[in-house]
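pls design
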């Protein structure tokens, strides 16, 4: 019998399975994942940025641990001597700002992150022009630059965790959770599409954008909804100097070097929450491309290669995750969702944290108690002085 059932085998479910397996519990863990190709999952659609630029201590510490794991991922997740390459590259991350409010925000952010040992620095307009001559900087007043931040390949990360967990003895079931049966204090049974019923001791809901549907099966409400983000991969005739993942704090949009070109992204904060899989090509031509070309004149001649839509599991309370048990109600039902666009970089820390909660009796490394479900019940947000995802 499986003692621990993880619902959803994306990067969160698979990282959790890996840390449980490394702690000697591989034989206790079953991961339920309906789609081993991960066609609609968030993870393979992600941009792949790992940054320490956050305004919440726990987020910074989780990113620092993310760097620690991802920089050694190839050896940590090697199976039978085959390394797990995720293309970890310290390409850097940079937020641009215009005007007094942006300057104040990024200055405060910089000082906050430096307090945790992050090698971040501020650039003024002249500094931006000198360091990144491809950028149009006349309307910029500040940049918060983090040269040690990195890019990774999201799909390879997911596959690395998954393969390693399986090699250690974790079971992945190709099935879908369609119901949960609960007593007043715990989840008793997990019902699968195939007709199977599992009776685990512990359940982890790591179904990301679909996590609220799983919660609804036991009457638990979470302030999380899908939020669409469009991604565009394009090339230009002449590559720019080495650029970090660059985004403007208030004007939105981002780009980073990717393959032989650049990967741009734009989150649809203007849209009704929910799944919106269709790409709005018109929006790229009329708004996004002109914005990109304004910031990087060389992008005027970009040639689109491909584009897609993915969805953040956006937490409407405060843009941060909801993690841990349903305290005071279904104590064996744990939730891990609401990552709001920064889950990939935090997956190692979240997997390790869930392992600690499930088998060690509490957090031993990074204390993530502020993010548990009690914050949803009380409606007390965790304020982030940093930029949005
Ligand atoms: C466009 C985009 C860009 C992003 N960029 C970044 C970035 O640069 N850096 C960063 O850190 N983060 C980024 N993110 C966020 C990051 O991708 C996510 O936070 C992270 O991948 C979430 O992982 P997950 O395992 O929770 O979700 P998923 O990968 O979505 O996995 C959830 C799994 O649950 C399964 N599931 C659904 N329903 C059921 C069910 N009923 N039963 C069983 N299983 C079920 C699904 O099939 C799916 O495989 C980005 C996200 C998007 C969409």
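designed seq:
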């Amino acid at each position: 019998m499986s003692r621990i059932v993880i619902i959803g085998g994306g990067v969160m479910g698979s990282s959790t399975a890996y840390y449980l397996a490394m702690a000697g519990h591989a034989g206790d863990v079953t991961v339920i994942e309906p789609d081993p190709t991960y066609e609609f999952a968030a993870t393979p659609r992600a941009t792949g940025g790992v940054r320490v630029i956050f305004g919440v201590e726990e987020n910074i510490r989780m990113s620092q641990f993310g760097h620690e794991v991802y920089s050694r991922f190839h050896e940590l997740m090697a199976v039978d001597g085959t390394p797990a390459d995720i293309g970890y590259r310290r390409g850097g991350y940079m937020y641009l700002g215009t005007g007094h409010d942006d300057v104040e925000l990024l200055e405060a952010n910089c000082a906050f992150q430096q307090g945790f040992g992050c090698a971040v620095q501020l650039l003024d307009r002249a500094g931006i022009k000198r360091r990144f001559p491809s950028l149009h900087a006349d309307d910029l007043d500040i940049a918060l630059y983090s040269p040690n931040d990195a890019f990774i390949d999201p799909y390879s990360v997911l596959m690395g965790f998954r393969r390693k967990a399986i090699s250690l003895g974790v079971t992945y079931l190709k099935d879908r959770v369609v119901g949960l049966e609960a007593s007043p204090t715990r989840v008793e049974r997990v019902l699968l599409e195939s007709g199977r019923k599992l009776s685990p001791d512990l359940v982890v809901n790591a179904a990301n954008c679909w996590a609220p549907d799983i919660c609804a099966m036991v009457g638990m409400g979470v302030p999380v909804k899908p939020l669409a983000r469009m991604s565009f991969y394009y090339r230009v005739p002449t590559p720019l100097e080495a650029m970090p993942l660059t985004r403007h704090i208030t004007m939105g949009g981002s780009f980073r070097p990717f393959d032989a070109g650049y990967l741009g992204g734009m989150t649809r904060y203007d849209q009704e929450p929910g799944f919106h899989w269709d790409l709005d090509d018109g929006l790229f031509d009329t708004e996004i491309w002109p914005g990109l070309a304004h910031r990087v004149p060389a992008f005027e001649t970009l040639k689109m290669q491909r584009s897609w839509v993915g969805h953040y599991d956006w937490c409407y309370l405060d843009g941060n995750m909801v993690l841990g048990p349903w305290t005071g109600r279904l104590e064996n039902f744990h939730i891990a969702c609401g990552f709001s666009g920064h889950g990939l970089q935090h997956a190692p820390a979240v997997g390790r944290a869930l392992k600690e909660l499930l088998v060690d009796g509490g957090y031993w490394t990074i204390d993530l108690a502020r993010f548990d479900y009690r914050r949803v019940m009380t409606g007390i947000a965790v304020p982030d002085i940093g930029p949005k995802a």
